[in-house]
Design a protein that fits this description.
Number of strands of chain B: 2
Structural class of chain B: mainly alpha
Strand content of chain B: under 5%
Order of helices and strands of chain B: HHHHHHHHHEEHHHHH
Distance between the termini of chain A: 20 Å
Oligomer: heterodimer
Largest interface: A-B, 32 and 31 residues
Largest sheet of chain B: 2 strands, antiparallel
Strand order of the largest sheet of chain A: 2-3-10-9-5-8-7-6
Number of helices of chain A: 4
Shape of chain A: globular
Structural class of chain A: alpha/beta
Strand order of the largest sheet of chain B: 1-2
Number of strands of chain A: 10
Number of helices of chain B: 14
């Protein structure tokens, strides 16, 4: 489980997030980050969730898929050029599949739950189904503007713009 | 002040400093100590006390290493008696610190925008314009690329060993180089088009035929050598580190040929030294330029040459630094000995990394 402490998180010079109560992200749960554009969902992933996950590498794996995939594509292709040079990664989905297969291989050697953070990625549904079928215990944290149907219970983390430079973050469940 | 006068003033100050304190008063301990005091005051005024301490901390490993070697030479009275080595050690060490700091102070007077104000034609300024752009791109992408490589599950499993750290930096470097090469191509072509459109100067078909390597690749590699030298590092002991400058020099030679290797290796590394260890900059300009040139003699299509020429290149780098340090007045034989182990580690890392990067880039660019 990872915890985000309440308080004000400064994301960049002119923007901060007001986290009202402690937020818990449990393995085998799904969290939907909901809020309008510019309300700080991507910043929350980058400035609150990722630093916590990076310090808990011995307990969890994490997958992070960024909203603008361009630069991330270079990183994944470079990784494959060293470790699996026979692969030809052309599209964004090829790169995501590489990450998912890599996760399955590593999980088979050293099983640990995975936190999957998906920031407005077109392949969210495929990622969800892959993880579901793989049997790897996962926590999916995503933000998405288009419809994404899940039959499971989803915890909603709301981002409400209080002012142009601050958003309020709070949790509800459906 | 006009930029050309500023450059002239900096060059004059450097020449005066070199002639007086590295040649005429080299053996005079009181003069060297006064110079050190004045330079430290000047540095504290320029960088503030915290900045000065940070810079001195950066030089500390090399200074300590130098002290260690002087101590051994004095203890065993190698070649000369104890007093000689104590005198030699004090003068060389004080001069090393004062020249390092003095050049750093002078460099603060010259920023990249100073060069953009030079009365040069657009055909020359385009190198500086693109270099500045590419440096910003590299600087803003590196930490994100590190995060993306970190978020690949294989990088999160197992123990973090030196080999794993080295390979991870190579992956990030490959991603960064691929990205910067693509950006250089786009922006370079765009600049050429704008120059043609606005100034009616052709870059041009004839030039393209004459030069096998395009100008923007040379700028790209120079920026990448500079960037990899100052910012991509792995600590190898409690006091030292490997930088990835040599990795990029070997890669530049293999990718772009001798000309790209020569310019990127020489200028990129010398610029990095001006920020870190400025007294080495003249030696670096020649030695790393040669390293890139020799690596660039390899024809990538012939496999044995990919391994052979970079090996010669890094051996020349080690020998070049040794000789360069030995012959340089404010460094000398002891500094050459102290610098040797670090250069050997650096050379091995550059050789392995440079070839691995070249082979991986060949794979990535074919997709």
């Amino acid at each position: 489980m990872i915890k985000i402490a309440p308080g004000i998180v400064s994301c960049w010079q002119d923007f901060s997030l007001l986290i009202e109560q402690e937020l818990f992200f449990l393995p085998e749960n799904i969290y939907y980050l909901q809020g309008e554009n510019g309300s700080g969902k991507s910043s929350f992933i980058k400035h609150s969730l990722l630093p916590v996950l990076e310090t808990q590498r011995n307990l969890f794996y994490f997958l992070y898929l960024q909203q603008l995939f361009h630069l991330q594509g270079y990183a994944i292709k470079s990784h494959s050029a060293f470790y699996q040079p026979e692969l030809k990664l052309k599209s964004e989905w090829d790169c995501i599949q590489y990450l998912l297969h890599n996760l399955s291989e590593i999980y088979a050697i050293e099983p640990k739950p995975v936190y999957c953070l998906v920031d407005e990625n077109l392949h969210l549904a495929e990622i969800y189904h892959y993880l579901k079928e793989s049997g790897i215990p996962f926590c999916l944290i995503f933000c998405e503007h288009s419809s994404f149907s899940i039959t499971e219970e989803v915890n909603i983390i709301n981002f409400q713009l209080l002012a142009p430079n601050q958003s309020r973050v709070y949790e509800t469940t459906i | 002040m006009k930029p050309q006068y500023r450059l002239l003033l900096v060059s004059l100050a450097l020449i005066v400093f070199f002639v007086f304190f590295c040649l005429i008063y080299l053996e005079n301990i009181p003069v060297q100590l006064v110079v050190l005091g004045v330079v430290l005051l000047l540095s504290a005024w320029t960088f503030k006390l915290k900045g000065l301490l940070k810079k001195l901390y950066h030089f500390l490993p090399f200074i300590l290493l130098l002290f260690g070697v002087y101590f051994i030479f004095a203890l065993f009275q190698i070649g000369h008696n104890k007093d000689y080595w104590i005198h030699y050690g004090i003068t060389r060490t004080t001069l090393l610190i004062s020249s390092l700091m003095f050049i750093q102070v002078l460099i603060t007077w010259l920023e990249i925008d100073t060069f953009l104000d030079f009365p040069l034609g657009i055909e020359k300024l385009k190198y500086i314009i693109l270099g500045k752009m590419l440096y910003k791109i590299a600087f803003s992408s590196y930490s994100e690329l590190c995060l993306f490589v970190d978020s690949i599950p294989a990088e999160q499993a197992g123990k973090i060993t030196l080999k794993k750290k080295f390979r991870k930096r190579l992956i990030v470097l490959l991603a960064l180089i691929t990205y910067v090469i693509n950006e250089a191509t786009l922006k370079g072509e765009m600049i050429d088009e704008r120059i043609w459109h606005c100034h009616k100067i052709k870059n041009t078909a004839e030039n393209k035929k004459r030069n096998k390597i395009k100008w923007y690749f040379i700028v790209c590699f120079t920026v990448m050598v500079y960037y990899a030298t100052i910012l991509i590092r792995i600590p190898v002991t409690s006091s030292g580190y490997i930088n990835f400058g040599d990795v990029v020099i070997i890669f530049s030679g293999l990718f772009g040929g001798w000309k790209a290797g020569l310019i990127a290796g020489g200028i990129g590394s010398a610029l990095a030294d001006l920020i870190g260890f400025p007294v080495f900059a003249p030696i670096t300009l020649i030695v790393k330029g040669l390293e890139g040139l020799i690596a660039g003699l390899a024809k990538p299509a012939i496999k044995w040459q990919i391994y052979f020429f970079p090996a010669i290149a890094v051996i020349i780098m080690i020998a070049g630094y040794f000789l360069g340090c030995w012959l340089f007045p404010n460094l000398g034989f002891v500094a050459a000995i102290a610098d040797l182990p670090g250069n050997i580690i650096q050379a091995v890392a550059g050789y392995i990394g440079g070839i691995a990067l070249h082979l991986a880039y060949t794979k990535i660019s074919s997709t």
